[in-house]
Structures are given as C-alpha cells and as structure tokens.
Design brief:
It contains 13 helices and 13 strands. The protein has 348 residues and is an alpha/beta fold. It has two domains: 85 residues, 2-Layer Sandwich (Ribosomal Protein S8, Chain: A, domain 1); 246 residues, P-loop containing nucleotide triphosphate hydrolases (Rossmann fold), CATH 3.40.50.300.
C-alpha cells in the first residue's frame, strides 16, 4: 500500500507566488485535480500532500512554473498542463513509435541530446516552449537536422512549432528566406475556376500558415517581409523547378501530396537550407487509389542518414483538452469500425 507524504515548496521570490499559483489559486487547483493531491497555500510556501510519486511530480511542476515566472513569462493553465505532461513523460522515455526520433534507422535517446531538457524559441512577440514530450522531441529534431518529418494528429503543434523555428532562424540570420507551402488539394491544384487573382485563389488554403506568422511577428513586419520576399507563402505547385538555398522551407498538410509531388519538393533542398514536412496520415484527401506522398516518403527514407522522423500521438494534443480525448477515442476504435472512417487513399 502506498503511503502518503508531504513536501513544502518555498518561493525564493515571494513576489512571484501569485504568478505561479494563479488568480484565486487556479493553477494550484489544476495541479490538485490532475495529480490527485491536497495542496495548501501558506503565502511563502506551498504544502503538497498525497502519494509520494504525485507529490514528487507536483513539486517538479511547481519548480518548472516558478522558473517560467522568474524569466518574466506568464503562467497560464495551458502552461500548467504542459508542465504536468512533460513531468509525467520525460524525454528519456521512448515515444509512441519507440523512437525519440529516428536517424539512419536507429533510435536515439535523450541522453544523446545535449540540452534536451530545455529548449525554447524566442520570436518578436513571444517565447515558445514545448508543451508535451513529443513537441520537445520535435524541436530538438528541427534544431539538429536538415530535414525533419512531423507526423501526427491535429492540434499537436506541428505547423506552429515549425513556423516558430523558421522565424527564429530567419531573425538570427541563419537563413535568408522563409518559405511555407501546402498543397491545394481541394481545388486539385487547378485554381483557374475560382474567382479573383492568384493570391485570392490560394490564400484560403494557406491561411493556417499566415495565422502562425501573425502570432509570432507584428503584422507590419510580416507584410514587409512578404513584400521583400524574405517570407514567401505559396502552394506546392509553385515549388517545381526551383532550388531553395539558404532558406527554411516548411511543407504543411503533406499527407495530401502525391509521391511525385513529394519527391519534387524534397529535391528542392539547396545549400544552407532546412526543410520540415508535416502531415496527418489519418486525414488524407487524395483520390481513391493514390498513395499519400507523405506515407511513401516515410517508407522510402526511413534509413536515410540526416533525416529525423518525429511522431506525435493524442498525448501531444495541446488544443482544448477535449480534442485530445476525441483523437484518442478515434485511435482506439475496433479495427472493423475504424475501417469505415478511412479515406480512399488510406485503403489503397
């Protein structure tokens, strides 16, 4: 039988206590609920009471939140959830696919990655830190590899974190251009029948990329960089025939590429460039009988040196908590029932 224990967390700077505890101790209440603890706030210290493992994790969460407040960053409920997720599944543990990330077909653990415990990205508008073990692995993979694949369900931060890493590289002068692309599958990459000029035709398909940029850079800076060409947002069809040197290139919604399109895109990689390819293989919109270019690339390139493949699962969903539960419910369906929800491309 597990014995209960108590542990006191004392604030080195009492002024930061409110930031950590939240208004009306809302953050403490969230920790209590998630970790099944009894927590008492005594102004200069927090008393945690419960099972030893939960108390230890709660103390680590408070340390993480205090460090965040000490660095001048806000401590919101989402940050509390993130600290709990990271504490419950440390980087040293294997991910859902058995790999921290894959390089040359071999699994690499956190011990092989210097600085794996902390990685953050600073843009003009905010500081961005991983909110799940999968996100932490993803950031490390993008930092250390010229080509990274991010594969997993919606809400895991694939596009957002890739855009943050790209903007960081651009602001630090590591690359001269940021290029974001995605296939316009719904229009079959044949956009002529839509009203308006080319920008008006393709913008609806590229809106998630714009949203990520606006969250990290002031709008006027995004506009100036788009006009100057240091940031480019374009449909995948526009990448053909180009060599993308000294650029950070992101392909989003890559599950909706064909194998030929994916090969075309990957071979655009030029000197001094980095690529990130993101997609969700459960949401393929290609015609029946057409194999996803993302699935084909993962099968073809799994043993190629210098490529990182990071897989996310429902535990990495950082949108509304209900989204994670929805993804988990779909993933846990019995096989015959799951078949009914597959796309035509999934069945091919």
């Amino acid at each position: 039988m597990t014995q209960d224990t108590s542990h006191a967390f004392r604030f080195a700077d009492a002024k930061l206590a409110l930031d950590v505890c939240g208004v009306g101790d809302a953050n403490l209440a969230l920790i209590e609920d998630r970790l099944s603890l009894d927590i008492a706030n005594r102004s200069d210290e927090i008393i945690l009471h419960g099972e030893a493992g939960s108390v230890e994790l709660g103390f680590a969460v408070l340390e993480s939140l205090y460090d965040r407040a000490r660095r001048g960053l806000q401590v919101e409920p989402a940050d509390v959830e993130a600290a709990i997720r990271l504490g419950q599944s440390p980087l040293g543990m294997e991910g859902a696919d058995g790999d921290l990330f894959t390089e040359n077909g071999k699994s690499k653990g956190a011990a092989d990655q210097p600085g794996a415990a902390i990685i953050a990205i600073t843009t003009r508008k905010k500081s961005i830190s991983p909110r799940s073990p999968g996100q932490a692995r993803y950031l490390l993979a993008m930092r250390d590899h010229e080509l990274t694949f991010g594969v997993g369900p919606a809400g895991t931060g694939k596009t957002y974190l890739a855009a943050a890493m790209a903007i960081s590289h651009l602001l630090e002068g590591k690359v001269r251009r940021l290029i974001l692309s995605r296939p316009a599958v719904e229009a079959g990459e044949r956009l002529g029948f839509l009203p308006g000029d080319m920008k008006e035709k393709v913008d609806p398909y590229l809106r998630p990329l714009y949203d990520a940029l606006y969250d990290m850079l002031p709008r006027d800076q995004v506009a100036k960089r788009l006009e100057a060409g240091s940031i480019e947002i374009a449909p995948l069809a526009f990448m053909r025939g180009r060599t993308l040197s000294e650029a950070f290139v992101i392909l989003d919604e890559a599950q909706n590429t064909t194998a030929a399109q994916m090969k075309m895109f990957l071979t655009r990689l030029g000197e001094g460039s980095r690529m990130v390819v993101n997609g969700d293989l459960s949401q393929v919109d290609l015609p029946r009988g057409v194999k996803s270019g993302l699935r084909d690339a993962l099968d073809t390139l799994r043993d190629v040196k210098g490529i990182a493949i990071n897989r996310f699962d429902s535990e990495d969903v950082v949108r509304h908590p209900l989204v994670g539960r929805i993804v988990k419910a779909y993933d846990s369906r019995p096989a015959p029932e799951a078949e009914a929800y597959k796309t035509d491309a999934d069945r091919s």
